[in-house]
From TrEMBL:
Gene Ontology MF terms: ATP binding; ATP hydrolysis activity; ATP-dependent protein folding chaperone; unfolded protein binding
Subunit structure comment from the entry: Component of the chaperonin-containing T-complex (TRiC), a hexadecamer composed of two identical back-to-back stacked rings enclosing a protein folding chamber. Each ring is made up of eight different subunits: TCP1/CCT1, CCT2, CCT3, CCT4, CCT5, CCT6A/CCT6, CCT7, CCT8. Interacts with PACRG. Interacts with DNAAF4. Interacts with synaptic plasticity regulator PANTS.
Gene name, Swiss-Prot/TrEMBL: cct8
Alphabetical list of PANTHER family matching this protein: CHAPERONIN
Catalysed reaction, written as an equation: ATP + H2O = ADP + phosphate + H(+)
Subcellular localization, as worded in the UniProt entry: Cytoplasm, Cytoskeleton, Cilium basal body; Cytoplasm, Cytoskeleton, Microtubule organizing center, Centrosome
Protein name: T-complex protein 1 subunit theta
Family to which the UniProt record says this protein belongs: Belongs to the TCP-1 chaperonin family.
Function: Component of the chaperonin-containing T-complex (TRiC), a molecular chaperone complex that assists the folding of actin, tubulin and other proteins upon ATP hydrolysis. The TRiC complex mediates the folding of WRAP53/TCAB1, thereby regulating telomere maintenance. As part of the TRiC complex may play a role in the assembly of BBSome, a complex involved in ciliogenesis regulating transports vesicles to the cilia.
Primary localization class, coarse: cytoplasm
Any GO CC annotation of this UniProt entry: cytosol
Coiled-coil boundaries: none
UniProt keyword annotations, A-Z: Acetylation, ATP-binding, Cell projection, Chaperone, Cilium, Cytoplasm, Cytoskeleton, Hydrolase, Isopeptide bond, Nucleotide-binding, Phosphoprotein, Ubl conjugation
């Protein structure tokens, strides 16, 4: 008979079998620091323009080849609670600024590594925290003195290109000039005079084939779709957008029809056809020449759309439908009713095009004052294009940050070195044990 050894009374007795409880400086704090250091070590070699790519395979067996820390951390399954806090800080940096996620991770790891030395010297945790907080306040005071340049006119493509270029270099070294110019064109074309800039207004469409240098900017939206009917090109498009299927409205209840003679059988579906034709005709008479639907397209509706020279485009994604409404200024209608002039969208041209061997539908604005711009990215592999898209995200977010604050500081670690030098000299003049943290 196996002997049963009871757990010691107290907190440990409340935990599940196999759970471990650590307490005190040696067990808890140093273990947490070690976990954060190991996490920082994982992405440290991916930092900067000479950073190496990482191969990450997530739980769905999807492969990522990237040096973007935000993507690496998003796909890693971090279990340690202390390391999770550093990951959360990195995610917050991604949401607020859009770049610098690896810096947050590496910097946090370096601070914790130095904090470990101070704790082993005999300082308490609160004294180390106090020193770090004082150093942070001093850094914010010193940063305005490190400003080396300022953006004067963000509506100028050349100036915007020069500002975006350093952010692209850390992700796509060697392609920074070409990509920065593309991103600057896309951002400047949708940057209003009011100064309100949204990163969601710059879209990316990835089309396999050719090389990066074949990429281009288009003022409008591009969808990897085909048109449903025979009409494939419309100039001066007036667009009706429906979130419902392009089909007859049917009731949910079932009905039974009694047919007494051959004539009734012949006329059985004629009423439905007449109703469908009347609906399509009323949409055409309202002035619309392009119909965009978020549901299925019935064969009968498509037949009458071809008859009345309506171009039909089907978008399965409600997000694409919403963005298209924003691009063309349309209102998505929930039912198949004729749109009013205020509910219709407008754009210079809608046409079916072939890029490589991919069919795309283009909603194009001729003037550079549209609500949305699209970067059409070409590449030899999907992984390559995904990595380019992440670099574009960083460039667009850099433009967003410049809209908020036009000041620039020297890069390549120069600002950090100067801050470290000044904070160290300031720390030597401060009294108390907390100053040792400097």
């Amino acid at each position: 008979m196996a002997m049963h050894v009871p757990k010691a009374p107290g907190f440990a007795q409340m935990l599940k079998d196999g759970a471990k409880h650590y307490s005190g400086l040696e067990e808890a704090v140093f273990r947490n620091i070690q976990a954060c250091k190991e996490l920082a070590q994982t992405t440290r070699t991916a930092y900067g323009p000479n950073g190496m790519n990482k191969m990450v395979i997530n739980h769905l067996e999807k492969l990522f080849v990237t040096n973007d820390a935000a993507t690496i951390l998003r796909e890693l399954e971090v279990q340690h609670p202390a390391a999770k806090m550093v990951v959360m800080a990195s995610h917050m940096q991604e949401q607020e600024v859009g770049d610098g996620t690896n810096f947050v991770l590496v910097f946090a790891g370096a601070l914790l590594e130095l904090a470990e030395e101070l704790l082993r010297m005999g300082l308490s945790v609160s004294e180390v925290i106090e020193g770090y907080e004082l150093a942070m306040k001093k850094s914010l005071e010193l940063l305005p003195e490190c400003v080396c340049a300022s953006a004067k006119n963000l509506h100028d493509v050349e100036e915007a290109t020069a500002m975006i270029r350093p952010a692209i270099m850390s992700k796509q070294y060697g392609n920074e000039d070409f990509l920065a110019n593309l991103i600057a064109q896309a951002c400047v074309s949708i940057f209003p005079e009011s100064g309100n800039f949204s990163v969601d207004n710059v879209r990316v469409c990835k089309i396999l084939g050719c090389g990066l240098t074949s990429s281009s900017v288009l003022h409008g939206m591009v969808f990897k779709k085909e048109t449903e009917g025979d009409v494939t090109s419309i100039k001066d498009a007036r667009i009706a957008v429906f979130s419902c299927p392009f089909d007859c409205m049917v009731t949910e209840t079932k009905g039974t029809v009694l047919i007494n003679n051959a004539e009734e059988l012949l006329n059985f579906s004629k009423g439905e056809e007449d109703m469908m034709e009347a609906q399509v005709k009323s949409i055409a008479e309202a002035g619309a020449n392009v119909v965009v639907t978020g549901g299925k397209v019935a064969d009968m509706a498509l037949h009458y759309a071809n008859k009345y020279k309506l171009m039909v485009v089907r978008l399965n994604s409600k997000w694409d439908l919403r963005r298209l409404c924003k691009t063309v200024g349309a209102v998505a209608l929930p039912r198949l009713t004729p749109p009013t002039p205020e509910e219709m969208g407008h754009c210079d041209s809608v046409y079916l095009d072939e890029v490589g061997d991919t069919q795309v539908v283009v909603f194009k604005h001729e003037k550079e004052d549209g609500a949305i711009s699209t970067l059409v990215i070409r590449g030899s592999t999907d992984n390559r294009m995904d990595d380019i898209e992440r670099a574009i995200d960083d460039g667009v977010n850099t433009f967003k940050v410049l809209v908020r604050d036009k000041r620039l500081v020297p890069g390549a670690g120069a600002t950090e070195i100067e801050l470290a030098r000044q904070i160290t000299s300031y720390g030597e003049s401060c009294p108390g044990l907390g100053a040792v943290s400097y």
